[in-house]
Amino acid sequence: MNDFPATQYVVAFVFAVAVAATVAGALIAVLTSRIIRSVCGLAICCCGLAGLYYFLHSPFLTLMEILIYVGAICVTIIFAVMLAEPEEAPSRETRRQALGWGGAALLVSGAVFWGLARLGLGHDWAAPARRTSEGTVKDIGVSLLTTYSLAFELISLVLLVAILGALVIARYGRTKP
After folding, report:
1. Is 5 part of a structural domain of the chain?
2. Tell me, what's the pLDDT at 85?
């Protein structure tokens, strides 16, 4: 009689939680006035997005979303905030200008959304490409160490330079003008 088993209710609930976390985190990141709260919203949004990647059967992207965006980017932003100089409070005129720009940004984003929705719903989409590999972590590792080895090494060098730069800044501190 019931074509919808109980496990699918749980899966639907977990999917709804992932979507809600993504949307709520994005709203927190955009609408709050404090940078630390914005970073926390970004972290929540990225965790929800990682859940959506998991539902797309991509555990590697799920792990990379959590490690790179939540673990690295959010922590880097928090360190940058901690090292930054405190600013003066914005004046009332600056706040009014920000509200004007916010309204304009809302109108432009609504127009872009409407245009993309019309484009996406109004045209036939091409058939998906044929899968050439399973897309497992092993396949990605083999590709990184054979086909894309130069790019992989260049990324590791860039990360090494960034870490050394952070150590130099932390060791000697910033000089004030």
Report:
1. yes
2. 66
Single out the residue in 85, 105, 126 at which a domain terminates: 85
Residues 9 and 81 reside in one and the same domain: yes
- pLDDT, block means (10 residues), the chain with 177 residues: 73 93 94 88 93 88 87 82 69 70 86 91 78 76 83 84 77 59
The domain in which residue 175 lies consists of 137-177
In a domain, 111, yes or no: no
Handedness of CA 121, 123, 127, 133 (dihedral sign): negative
Handedness of CA 136, 137, 140, 145 (dihedral sign): negative
Quote the pTM value: 0.57
CA dihedral over 112, 118, 123, 124, signed as positive or negative: positive
Long-range contact list for 49-54, CB < 8 A, 24+ apart?
49/22, 51/14, 51/15, 51/17, 51/18, 51/21, 51/22, 52/15, 52/18, 52/19, 52/22, 54/18
- 106 lies in some domain: no
Assign 33 to helix, strand or coil.
coil
In a domain, 78, yes or no: yes
pLDDT at 135: 72
